[in-house]
Amino acid sequence: MRLLDVQALDLRLDQLAHRRRTIPEIAESERLRVERKQLESDMITAETQVTDLTREQRKAEADVEQVRSRRTRDEQRLQAGQVGSPKELESLSHEIESLTRRQSDLEDVELDVMERLETAAARHDELRGQYTALEERLAEVDRSRDAAFAGIDAESDQIRRERADTAAGVTDTLLTLYEKLRAQFGGVGAAALHQRRCEGCRMELDASYLTKIASTPDDTVLRCEECGRILVRTLEPGV
């Protein structure tokens, strides 16, 4: 019966190991990390766009200022009466008109760049906010995961100690066979013989084999004729 106790403890350890591998926080943490990586990429793209548009805005401002300064100088010359001939006066007037149109066009460009920069900066700020919130959520999930790990590990350690104490009452030869069969049969190397049925494979044993079992000494290692697992006799009469 001690071997069945070992088997029960091993199954409990297997269940805890499975639970440790599949706690929801693991999948959630992985999902958030993928999302964070995508956000980081999006932030780099947004930051690059802000940098490029900032440079473009400075150029647009410089272009406008250059045309504005030239136009101001021409207007000052005109107002100061520094133009002598009618032909030069006409030429200067045409140039001022041309500069006025050019300044207007450049100011439109400047305004467009400013609007695009404002949109890009808002997008970058939005992504930073999302990133901050995601980092906080990820930290929370990881703390919950680690707490779950700690609880499972503490329970597993306790069961391992109990298992070691229990296995000390099983012979080395039987324990070695049990471990080998356990690896073969999905974690179940020993099963109870209950109501003429192997609890490992759930098959009912042949009557002649049951008779043979009944006549063997109590310390004989029995094997299920169907699945090969170690059979442990219970207190049921006749087996």
From TrEMBL:
Limits of the CT398-like coiled coil hairpin domain: 6-186
Ranges of compositional bias, category Basic and acidic residues: 54-77, 87-97
A Pfam family assignment: Zn_ribbon_9
Domain C4-type zinc ribbon: 197-231
Annotated region (Disordered), positions in chain: 54-97
Name of this chain's protein: Nucleic acid-binding Zn-ribbon protein
Organism of origin: Actinopolymorpha pittospori
